[in-house]
Amino acid sequence: MTVTNERRVLVHSDKLALAGSVAARFITKTVDILDDLGEAHVVLTGGSVGIAVLEAINASSARDSVDWSKVSFWWGDERWLPRNDSERNELQARAALLDHIAVPAENVHPFAASDDGITLEDAALAYAAELVEAAPSGAAFPRFDITFLGVGADGHIASLFPHLSGIRETELSVVAVTNSPKPPPERLSLTRPALNSSDRVWLVLAGADKASALGLALAGASRDEVPVAGIKGRRRTVFFVDGAAAAEVPSNLIAPSY
Ligand SMILES: O=C1O[C@H](COP(=O)(O)O)[C@@H](O)[C@H](O)[C@H]1O
């Protein structure tokens, strides 16, 4: 394992191995967090690898060693679509894991949907208020224990895209996005301060199309240019990648699969 500026890059043989390894680590870490703290707050991501990780957690024989009643789930971002649209990150996460575990409904905190009868801007305010409600007194968000993030080919994380205002936000915890270059254009996203408040940020990415963004981020690109460059958890930041995504990471930063 290689440590670089407190960021670790763990390379796996392929997406399946990556998802299985992250799932096993998530289960073990969550059990430890629950032992230590009595509850855990987890931020979920959309995207191909993020959902594959949830499927792998669901498929694990150790799945129910976690006391899911003590775990709360939040989302890093959501696509502004009707509640039952299959492109919603919420729906995909429910199908992959949440519908199969004994997590109380009140512990699951999806963003509003476009058919909920509120505006996108009000949905951002409502999610920020929900975060405050679960936060320690005076704080803007709960103590996030583990935050999952996918990474787009352009280096976006959550719905914070290169050169758009969301990645520059420093005050708000949630932003409404109206001009996403990736469909759909309207989205909701946690901001960098909210994501970086997490004790652990686990980035999950696979495929050759992610290689350039990852290489640039680890080489010190600006967060405006490559948003993932601006992500750092309070205690740990780990990039779980496959060999194709790692192609442009300097070899001295790469740890072998384990
Ligand atoms: O649209 C989104 O894309 C990213 C990355 O997705 P991927 O399929 O390229 O891995 C994801 O992180 C984000 O949550 C999602 O809304």
What kind of sheet is the major sheet?
7 strands, mixed
Uncertain runs:
1-5
Q: Give me the side-by-side strand order of the main sheet.
A: 1-2-10-9-6-3-4
Overall structural class, as computed from helix and strand content, comes to alpha/beta
* Backbone CA Rg: 17 Å
The succession of helices and strands, N to C, reads EEHEHEEHHEEEHEHE
First and last CA, distance: 9 Å
The pLDDT mean sits at 95
Shape: globular
Structure explained in plain terms:
Residues 14-237 form the Glucosamine/galactosamine-6-phosphate isomerase domain. InterPro entries: 6-phosphogluconolactonase_DevB, 6PGL, Glc/Gal-6P_isomerase, NagB/RpiA_transferase-like. Hydrolysis of 6-phosphogluconolactone to 6-phosphogluconate. It catalyses: 6-phospho-D-glucono-1,5-lactone + H2O = 6-phospho-D-gluconate + H(+). Pfam families: Glucosamine_iso (PF01182). The protein has 258 residues and is of the alpha/beta class. The chain has a single domain (3-253), classed as 3-Layer(aba) Sandwich (Rossmann fold), CATH 3.40.50. Helices cover 28% and strands 18% of the residues. The protein contains 6 helices and 10 strands; from the N terminus they run E-E-H-E-H-E-E-H-H-E-E-E-H-E-H-E. It has helices spanning 15-37, 48-59, 89-96, 120-134, 192-196, 211-218, and strands at 3-4, 7-12, 40-44, 71-75, 77-79, 146-149, 174-177, 187-190, 200-205, 236-242. The strands form 2 sheets. Strands 1-2-10-9-6-3-4 form a 7-stranded mixed beta sheet. It has a 3-stranded antiparallel beta sheet with strand order 5-8-7. The longest helix has 23 residues, at 15-37. It is globular. It starts with a strand and ends in a 16-residue tail after the last strand. Bound molecules: ligand LXAUTJHC.
